[in-house]
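Hi R.,

Here's the input for the 2-acetamido-2-deoxy-beta-D-glucopyranose complex you asked about:
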Amino acid sequence: MCKLMRLPLIALTSCPAEFWGDVAKDFFWKTKHTGQFLDYNFDVTKGEIYIKCMEGASTNICYNLLDRNVHEKKLADKVAFFWEGNEPGDELTVTYRELLQRVCQFANVLKAQGVKKGDRVSIYMPMVVELVVAMLACVRIGAVHSIVFAGFSAESLCERIVDSQCCLLITADGFYRGDKLINLKLLADEALQKCRDKRSSECLQAHRPGFRRDFGSLTFSVCVCVCVCVCARVCVQVPWNPEVDLCWDALLRGVSDECEPEWCDSEDPLFILYTSGSTGKPKGVLHTVSGYMLYTATTFKVVFDHQPDDVYWCTADIGWITGHSYITYGPLANGATSVLFEGLPTHPDVSRMWEIVDKYNVTKFYTAPTAIRLLMKFGNEPVQRYKRSSLKVLGTVGEPINPEAWQWYYNVVGEKRCPIVDTFWQTETGGHVLTPLPAATPMKPGSATLPFFGVVPAILNESGEELEGPSEGYLVFKQPWPGVMRTIYGSHERFESTYFKKFPGYYVTGDGCRRDKDGYFWVTGRIDDMLNVSGHLLSTAEVESALVEHEAVAEAAVVGRPHPVKGESLYCFVTLNDGVMYNSELEVELKKQVREKIGAIATPDYIQNAPGLPKTRSGKIMRRLLRKIACDERELGDISTLADSTVVEQLFQNRCCTAV
Ligand SMILES: *[C@@H]1O[C@H](CO)[C@@H](O)[C@H](O)[C@H]1NC(C)=O
Ligand SMILES: *[C@@H]1O[C@H](CO)[C@@H](O)[C@H](O)[C@H]1NC(C)=O
Ligand SMILES: *[C@@H]1O[C@H](CO)[C@@H](O)[C@H](O)[C@H]1NC(C)=O
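And here is the predicted structure with 2-acetamido-2-deoxy-beta-D-glucopyranose in place:
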């Protein structure tokens, strides 16, 4: 008695196995699963943490994403991707048939290079079709891809290659990001050189006896080095070393476009994706085959209300989990047509997004709050230059969206016609875990609303007790769903201590969350982003939201600064809208605004005009650095993920020294 109910307010919590078992019938299985559908231990006090979904069943995701759509579902000539380049007019169309052929060809190339099932392959590429081809070619032969966002430095790339012991690197010659030419091959070469330098020390000790499951060969024979170039689309001087570099086009010449898929167990590793730890080295989040496939396919279908004639566009980069789950896996599993965009929302001008929406008649659009706030700064005119009449559902991802940006997205971009799906999830969760369902869940601006089917959240207080009704505390999950991560590559111990040790019996997200009287969830940001002002816990997100509601403010970030009496004081950074001047009058207004919205306890102690904020390359504000600025500490630690370091210098120069 637990079929997928179209009654959206009923989260399906009682028998997820039956629900997911029905979903699994829509996929191809070479052999059936043997054990329980979903088997797990979430309690460290009872032994090792594990999650297994459909263990014993074998399948291949690439086969499910491509072959079945081409051969069984008659989608061979349907467009899989409209590729839109950095420059308007630079475009390509790829059908499901073409994608399948290209993936099979490249899979054969990988095999010819000696890549086997279980081997790790590092991919460092811009948003070109070849990136999708490379990742699915790995999947076809059972190799594990580890995609590193092409905005990361050589040092970061090397660190990730070494950590996952990749045997091959796939990269491109170069590309333009906006006006800026990125010579990617040069960075890739630098990374490989660093790997060779480290080889003697780290590679030799790479055999890790503590690693509990057999995720492929652990002997570190090569620290890598075949380099494949996409094509010379841009004029860069590509350094070329014939001993290690191979050219993509040359390798494909004469290669068959048929390749038998490698059948993999449900719990074989699918990919590794690194996420920065707040301390220490990045964590290689590992996802496995079947659970991830079922989960991304289903969340995509339900959360975007996918219809066969949709044109879907997710603006994320495939180098992030959003691009893995909701550009590649989820959409292709549903036979969807997507836009694959290489460029930036501001290039050549701030209308680019809406121009693309009209060009392809995009129906479902998925982007990040940081992009919305960025575009909001330029007012309504650049949006209204285009019709956007095809849009039906708007989504957000990456961080909680502040109500101000939500309203603009809803009223101006969607003209009050399009429901907004504010999706909360993480690299670790694999797919959406808290989200509205479009036109079914009543929306509240800034709330990710309710859990997805089979997801069981709870809010805990500091002592680990579950809070009932309206409350605020730690967001945790009580049981797994098929798409949750399985381990941290190479360190199951770190996996357990990061996510399961603090509150035994629960998966701990690390995010704070409030539940209102209607049971809606409001994620307030990383729990380390809470402030303790005179014993009152304040979420920085709430203060930021109050600041951004002022018409002069485009973006705000709030951090704590130690205070002898109050414990912590509020140090606020504000970025103003285009053309607005910063002055003391505005400062007074901002203080008043926060006091009125939240209360006297939240009155800002310092406000600094910040023309730019330090952000990661994925657009997340780096609060850690802002705290350093607030406290005038110049030891910055690891800033490899920082997009633009000049911003930090500027902020140091204009620090506030006295409270306002
Ligand atoms: C988009 O829709 C308009 C009008 O509905 C139509 O004229 C146009 O051909 C469509 N464009 C594409 C690329 O389908
Ligand atoms: C929450 O934590 C406090 C101690 O920190 C405890 O006294 C209280 O009973 C806990 N539980 C609830 C449900 O508030
Ligand atoms: C907040 O700070 C006060 C001291 O200023 C401390 O006694 C209290 O335990 C802190 N509360 C939390 C939840 O950290």
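One thing worth noting: The chain has 18 helices and 30 strands.

Cheers,
M.
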